[in-house]
């Protein structure tokens, strides 16, 4: 059976993850791969319920630790119900965010210890880490221009918070160059998609 693979896309809001996930999944399918897409948090009934609390309930104030554990709970469910079964069937999983988002959002930007989040994440994910992380890096001005819609709770936290997010992602990319590939997402959608395909092909020679 063909080996399953797991890829996650990361970046600050407005980096273009949603559009690129669709294009990446379409391209992988064109190579004959079976592809499952998911979003973190979400992709299961439990995950979708937790997502509504985290992003849509503006009346609820969550301390950073509670926020972190809710993301972990949704992720544990997604790993068990979606990611592990798909990879086990030899399929490719492409996820909109994963553990790295927790480390950056609640750690670098939210004030929690990133290493503690990493340790909790190993338990929540049962050790399932992406085979490749694509970081779509975009400056704050470009991000703001692209967010021409009602903002969720995290997106409403302001430029200082978003600046810490971008710095956190860049710090993690420098820390993990073997697993995180950074792509300039300020370019046009087609150019970014092409760069992602090159990065994925370089990591997985069976696609060449």
Describe it.
The chain has a single domain (5-203), classed as P-loop containing nucleotide triphosphate hydrolases (Rossmann fold). The chain has helices at 17-30, 45-56, 64-88, 99-108, 114-124, 140-146, 159-175, 189-203, and strands spanning 5-10, 35-39, 92-96, 132-137, 180-184. The relative contact order is 0.20. By secondary structure, it is an alpha/beta fold. The mean pLDDT is 93. The protein has a 5-stranded parallel beta sheet, with helices on both faces. Helix 2 (45-56) runs antiparallel to helix 3 (64-88).
Shape: globular
Mean pLDDT: 93
Q: Strand count, sense and closure of the main sheet?
A: 5 strands, parallel
Number of domains: 1
**What proportion of the residues is helical, as a percent range?**
40-55%
Sheet-strand content, in percent, reads 5-15%
Instruction: Give the CATH topology.
Output: Rossmann fold
Provide the structure class.
alpha/beta
| Gyration radius over CA | 16 Å
The count of strands amounts to 5
Give the strand order of the largest sheet, numbering strands 1, 2, ... along the chain.
2-3-1-4-5
Number of continuous helical runs: 8
Low-confidence stretches: none
**Topology as a string of helices (H) and strands (E):** EHEHHEHHEHHEH
For the record, what CATH class applies? Alpha Beta
Return the CATH architecture: 3-Layer(aba) Sandwich
Distance between the termini: 19 Å
CATH superfamily, called what? P-loop containing nucleotide triphosphate hydrolases
